[in-house]
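W.,

You were right to be curious about this one. When I first looked at the sequence I had no strong expectations either way, so I just let the prediction run and decided to look at it fresh. Below is the sequence, 569 residues in total, followed by the output.
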Amino acid sequence: MREEPSADFGKRFAFDDDSEEIESISAGSALGMAMMKAIGIPEYIDDNTGWDRSQRVLSPGNALKAICGTMFTENLKRSLTGISSFYGYSPVDTLFGAKVDHQSLNDVSLGRAMDTVFGGDLELLYYNIASRAKAQYGIISKYYHLDGSNITVVRDPNREYGELDDGVPRPMLGHPKDGRTDRLQYNFECVADDNGLPVYFKTHDGNTTDNRMDTDALELMADFMSDNRIVAVADCKLVNEDTVNSLIWNNIPFVSKCPDNYAEKVRSFIVKEAMDKGFTPIGRIGRRNDAPEYGICDLDAVANGEKLRFIAYRESDIEHSLDYYRRKVGKDVNERLTKIAKKTFACEKDAVLETERHAKWLSERPYDVTFTPVCEMVKTKRKGRGRPRLGEEPPKDIEQWHLSYTAAFNGTRAKKMAEERDIRVIVTSLPRSDVTYEDVVDGITGGDVMRIYLQQWKIENIFGEMKSKLGADSVFFESPKREAVMLFSIAAAVLVRRMMQLLVRREYGKGFGIPRDVTAYRMFCMIRNTSVRLDRDAGRVYLDGPAAEKRQLKAFLSILGIDPSDLIG
């Protein structure tokens, strides 16, 4: 039988109705929003968007700050309807403006603020915010990695939007990376510098080409960075006649992967020349113990009337490539052969035709495969049920064919394929030199060109953070305009997270207890159980949480140069 609580139970646990409400906010959100304030993001948005200050309680900049604040945790961001509850126990007046209360953070006022932010030219807003932040912390970059991506949205593909305002991206059917061709998508372009900071972001229509998105980004960089000698780095989508001519015309050196179809298939010529000339070993690239060693061949060739530099490279360790052919390619071959062996055919001719259908695919793999048609007599069932009638002949057995096979790894052919097909080609307009100058525009070795290109993972890392860590495709609206602003907000949050990560990583090994290569996600996990509390009566801010986490938060504040009082607004 359950015991009833004693009469003084409520008193002992302070379950009285007159208890004072505690105002607090999670340490990660407080730290991230304090970083936004230190960079000046809310103020810059307020100053560069048109809005009537006398008619608004919540400014556009503070609305963006509130939206981004939910992204400075180890969890996914909140929807607009969940933002008010996220700050349910927080002192919103000190965080977002003296007149702001919890009702001011409803989805209607936040949506109206998002419309205002869109009117400020998102592309230019983002570029200027990122540039000001880098200048504030003295971060200088020479390489800029460009790439585009897309996200799908759950919406009726047959819906007609009609006329949209100028500059509003339209979701369209396309070929998204998640394979959902039945869903609408937005395309977007991002540029990351060599420090891993996103410095450019723009949302495009769902069917905008990669070439168009790259061109928009390059035009802005040419307009605003003409006094700086920078290098544009991208995947092979950058390399086409028009874009390369534009880069050379605007005096922007570039490094990119060379596509197969560029300039009358100049890549094939480079591969042949490299095979004839040979490869110079340059050693291992990267810090991983299992990183392969490479050899390069540095050549020149004329492409579309321009003399460019082509660097062919491949792994020096043939055994590394052979192991790939044994394991990965061997698995693919085995899976295909297993499916072929399960098929049945009505005659030998059909079985032979099946082997011919797979002949080309198998010839491109270093395996010797032999097929043998095999015939079996299969009993057939009598039509109908019950006993056969008197004199009824039993059904005859029929022929059924299948293929048996033998497969053997051909080491000689695998080695030849590794030598010829594992060659990759980089094209660049950077001048050749025996040594790499401090400003690579004056000259750079082939090995360092390759090192620059292999840093392209930095832009992919940003896409991963936007989608996996922040859930870029999990919350969308009926308005494409607001969807564009939400993506802008996510990109702004990534900028702040990456800036914090960069500054904190610089202090590794200096007594702050920071893990090597710490990420923003890891930082928020390290202080997840700590909150920042406001005692209005005493007029003070204090931390509540485990002692180790409070020490870690104080270390972050010291490194980032943030005043503790700014944690609460």
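Here's what jumped out at me. The chain has a mean pLDDT of 87. And, maybe more interesting for your project: The two ends are 51 Å apart (CA to CA).

Coffee later to discuss?

I.
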